[in-house]
Specification:
Number of domains: 2
Shape: globular
Number of helices: 5
Number of strands: 0
Bound molecules: protoporphyrin IX containing FE
Helix content: over 70%
Radius of gyration: 16 Å
Distance between the termini: 36 Å
Strand content: under 5%
Structural class: mainly alpha
Largest sheet: none
Length: 131
């Protein structure tokens, strides 16, 4: 039962991650045409809800899995990179900087790579798996 709950939460977490980057890219494309468009309708609140769920599910996984982010470098790297992703999102959409949008998308890809390899350096584990 506990394992099922953990796997369900992991699925929710990964689903929130996919939704978060989809909304981020969508908002970036709309913003290029009309910066005000991302402050209207569903795009005004949905990204914040999804990112809150992403963070809450991350905290749930850490708690259920009895993990210590200070003892596991890949978790510490994810937390740090998530803060960077949030910060770059603010610079991109509130500050109107396109480079920050590209950097945030790249940082997101790094977070997913760290999640899958469980290695903050990514490449050593990836090349071992592909060998
Ligand atoms: C943008 C932010 C994040 C993204 C895109 C993301 C993405 C993912 C993905 C795709 C997985 C599934 C990996 C797999 O099973 O192969 C995962 C698992 C996990 N994530 Fe995240 N994550 C994010 C933030 C965080 C944060 C901040 C934490 C820690 C506080 C965290 C903790 C975990 C844990 C504990 C697992 C489960 C590991 C396991 O049992 O296999 N995530 N994440």
């Amino acid at each position: 039962m506990a394992v099922t709950g953990y796997l369900l939460l992991k699925g929710i977490h990964a689903g929130c991650a996919l939704t978060s980057i989809t909304l981020f890219i969508w908002r970036g494309l709309l913003w290029r045409r009309d910066p005000q468009s991302i402050r209207r309708g569903v795009l005004r609140w949905l990204p914040h809800l999804v990112d809150t769920l992403l963070l809450a599910s991350a905290l749930g996984l850490v708690t259920l899995g009895a993990r210590n982010p200070l003892a596991e470098p890949w978790l510490a790297a994810k937390i740090t990179a998530l803060l960077g992703y949030i910060g770059l999102g603010l610079v991109a959409f509130r500050g109107g900087r396109r480079w920050a949008w590209y950097a945030a998308v790249a940082l997101f890809a790094y977070i997913v790579a760290v999640a899958v390899t469980k290695d903050p350096l990514v490449l050593p584990t990836l090349s071992r798996r592909l060998a």
